[in-house]
Amino acid sequence: MLIEIGNIINKYSKQNEIDNGNQVLLKTKEVLNRYPAITNYGLNEAIKNGFIPVVKIGKLNYFDIKDIEKYLASNKIIVNDSKKIHKKYI
């Protein structure tokens, strides 16, 4: 029973992804669900400032998973007790 539910969830999530060879594109809501560290405001600011490229198809925005993960990796910081670094958004 649990295996069937897992298969249904995987099938649903794969239906919502656009797969162009090795490039997987996600809609905005899917990015926000998959990466809870990213807020809607943060995503929009990253797009506006050119940190994350976007593919526009009609009114919908699609994002490459590799670009999202590269953006998150570029925002990693090591916090020391002696130094405090403040990021405006992520």
Provide an overview of this structure:
The protein is of the alpha+beta class and 90 residues long. 44% of the residues lie in helices and 18% in strands. It has 4 helices and 4 strands; from the N terminus they run αββααββα. The chain has helices at 2-15, 28-34, 40-48, 65-74, and strands spanning 18-20, 23-27, 55-57, 60-64. The chain is globular, with a radius of gyration of 16 Å. The mean pLDDT is 80.
Task: Throw out a few tags for this protein.
4 helices, 90 residues, four-stranded antiparallel β-sheet, alpha+beta
Give me a quick take on this structure.
The protein has 90 residues and is an alpha+beta fold. The chain has four helices and four strands; from the N terminus they run H-E-E-H-H-E-E-H.
Which residue ranges are poorly predicted, with pLDDT under 50 across at least 5 consecutive positions? none
Query: Globular, elongated, flat, extended or rod-shaped: what is the shape?
Result: globular
| pLDDT averaged residue by residue | 80
Order of helices and strands: HEEHHEEH
